[in-house]
Every structure is written in C-alpha cells, then in structure tokens.
C-alpha cells in the first residue's frame, strides 16, 4: 500500500513538472526519446539556481578553488588512461523470450536478489527472472560500455573515434598542470567544473534520476600525500570526534581532508533546502570501494522510488594524476619548496629512518617496496604527485530531490468556506525559480496598473519575477503555489494612497501590508 502511494506521488510530481513547465520529455512531438529530458522555463531556472549555489559555495567563496569549463569531446587517450575505454561498463542481460534488455544488478535488486560476482565477471542468482514477462530464459550478464562513441572529422574510421565524456573529472586531471601554473595556487587547492556528461544507460529510469544526458558538479581537491605532511609538520593529525573541521590546517592528512569535505557538502545540501533528517550518509564498505579509493561517502535521499545517491565524496589517492602521467608522458608532479626545506633540515639518520618506515608501511598495504623507495626519493627532492578528494554531485538529481521534497498537497478552505486541495512546492527561497509574483488587483484602472508595473520592474531588476494580471487573486495564488514562488504581491487602491502592498507568504498563506522598501528587504533576507 505504501509503495502504491509513493508511485502515485511520483506520478503527481511528473504531471506537475510538465503542467507548470519544469521538465518535458525530450522530442515529445516525435514520440520522445528514452533517457533524455528538457527543462522548461521554471525547470531551467531551478536547476540554474542549484548550479549557481554550488558554484558560489565551492568556488567564489573560497580562495583555494579555481574553475574550469572543458570540452565535452576530448582526446580518446584520456579515456584509455582513466580506464573508461576498457572498463567503464555495466553488466547487461537480455530476455530471450520478450527481447527486453536490463541492467543485471538492477534486475536483481528489484527482486530482492544479489548479483553474483565471479572471477571473470558476474552471474545471475537462481530465481532471477524477467520483470517484463516473467521468463527465466535470460542471457548471462555481459559487459556493455556506457560511453557514447562519435567520430571527429570527415572520415569515420578507427583513427577518428572519439567519445562524449562520461564524467567531468578527467578534464580536470588533464588540465591540472595548466591550472596550477596559471592560477598561482599551491597544494592544497581545488579545481571545480559544472558541465554535461553522457552515459548510454542500459535502462534509464525514475524520471530524470538516471538519464543518458545529465549535468555534474564536480570538485577535485588536490592535497599533499600524508608522507609529505609528516616531513613538513613532523606528524600527521589524527581524526577524532573532537577534530575541529571549521578551518583547514597544515597537518591534515587525507582522512581529515575527506571528512572535512563530507561536512562541507552536507552543509550545502541543507543550505539549498534539503532537511537534515532526509539526508542519508552511507559509507561504502571495503569491498564496494574502487581499487584506488581509500574511502567514499555517498549522500543519499529517499525519493518516492527509493533511497538513491545524490553525491559521492571519494578519497581517490594519487591514482588519476598518476595514470595520466604514465599514459601521456607528461609529469603531474608538483615541486613543494616547503617540503624541500623540511627535508634539508633532516640529518642522514632521520632520512634513513623515514625511508625505512615509509617502505614498511607501503609493503604492509601490499605495495611494491621499490616503488615505495622511489616515492621517498622524490619526496626528498621536494616532489610528489598530489592526492585528491573528489566531491561529485548530480545537478539533475539534486534538482529532482528538491522538487520531490518541496511537493505537498494539503486541504485549505476556499472563499466559500469549503475545503480545496492546494498543491504547493515549498522550495527554499534561495533556489525557487521565481522569487516573487506581482498582481495588479484589476487591470482596467490605468493608474493602478501603471503602479503595479513600476513595482514589478523594480523587483525584476534584482530577482526573477512573474507578472500575472488574469483571473481571480485566489487562482493566481494557486498557480504560484504550484510554481514554488515564495512571495506574491498584490497592488491595490491602497497602494495608490499610502504606498503599501499586500505580500502573501507561500508556506503560511498569511498576508501583510508592507511598504515597497520593506518588501525588498524582506525578499533579500529570505533569498540571502
């Protein structure tokens, strides 16, 4: 029963998104295309507000993060270096009876089963069946590369193959040296990017949550290896419940940096309107981590279709920059003068002790002692490849989460004293697509109409506003409730007398008379 209610809620949300111009099916007049969505007038404003808020918090308000806007199509060797060309794949199965195709892990998950991991790939568990026709006549799972292939230039051959990027992170790694040398930054620092990515999903589903074209908001924050921190500071700070994460410190190692960015990202999710109690923090287990990752936290949200990931914060070690150094032949090392000076202050015995300890620690983690020794040698020269903490969020998923969380239906009395159902989107004013709507009480009184237009133009100079002159005031309120507009302003005959307007609050539906100056201050305080 609960599941049915949630399905009905999702249907209502999808219907509202189309009716009010948030999200449309792409190419709908031609029957649509699965996994692609268009954002309408309200939707593109909402998503832009989400991205702008992320950019302001991540880049503009920080001195240690720079921005990047890289191309969607890059050199194909980038994807060979990153592992996407060979290993960016999902397990796929086909039903031999109805010919439907599924992602194997999703098919199992829907039936409460677990996909079986084997030495060579994956296998379906006993009892797994096609959810379309019920058949158990399924193919074995096989890898399906998710990258969209295209060709650069007039000739379509293997020499001109390129790919639409499946993430925005690799461009950041590829441009690391250029940004470092032109921005006058020093490690630790970050590079951020917001942009389109493309994945040829086997089974796009759940509205805009899993699409084939989507936008990511990614930060790669580069930090010193713990060994470099130890040489510079004499120790590496340990993460404890009492660790102060308010301001970064020189003695932080990867573990504290990771926790710092987890808390930074949590606060942003709350600031844009998600209630703290709706955010689920999931720490990936050791067997779920990528082979190069030391830790990864997923922030999840409970959508009507289930609890799903909004953002991941991963400690990725030096894997990415190292891969690009190996494949491109270009150095990704940085020279750290502070490190060089710290090493110069050590005597031979201290250097030998540090080398011995570091090699032993690497060996205990299953790493090559020769590589460990070479790493120490580079440290002693003041050089290292930075490690990275990666917060990666989906702009489309975040936008959908805000719509789902804001959506509400409630009974309210109408003008005749009877109960009506009000549909409302309770967005935070910070991200609401329209901040204020202006209504002239009537449109056939030139002086009143002109005053309303004057007020509208004043407000529009600062915020996205909506003008509505048709229909009863109550109906105009309802339309703005469905758009998520936090404030509605009615200009009436009293406005001509004393300069005050009626402002109506979306959430409480209370009305008060204020001056235009007080109205501006009220909106500024709410929007931030």
Secondary structure topology:
Elements: H1 2-19, E1 23-25, E2 37-39, H2 41-60, E3 65-67, H3 76-82, H4 84-87, E4 89-94, E5 101-103, H5 104-110, E6 116-117, E7 122-123, E8 142-145, E9 149-151, E10 161-163, H6 169-174, H7 176-183, E11 189-198, E12 213-223, H8 226-233, H9 254-271, E13 279-283, E14 295-303, E15 306-315, H10 319-328, E16 334-335, H11 337-344, H12 348-364, H13 369-380, E17 383-384, E18 387-394, H14 395-406, E19 407-413, E20 419-425, E21 436-440, H15 446-460, E22 465-467, H16 473-483, E23 487-491, H17 493-498, E24 500-505, E25 511-515, H18 516-527
Parallel strand pairs: 3-11, 21-22, 21-23
Antiparallel strand pairs: 1-2, 4-5, 4-8, 6-7, 9-10, 11-12, 12-18, 13-14, 14-15, 15-18, 16-17, 19-20, 23-24, 24-25
Spell out the key features of this protein.
alpha+beta; five-stranded mixed β-sheet; single chain; 528 residues; seven-stranded mixed β-sheet; globular; Rossmann fold
Explain what this protein looks like in three dimensions.
The chain has 528 residues and is of the alpha+beta class. It has a domain at 434-527: Rossmann fold. Helix content is 38%, strand content 24%. The strands form eight sheets. The protein has a seven-stranded mixed β-sheet, sandwiched between helices. Strand 6 and strand 7 (122-123) form a beta hairpin. Helix 8 packs across helix 11 (337-344). It is globular. The two termini are 41 Å apart. The model has no long low-confidence stretch (mean pLDDT 93).
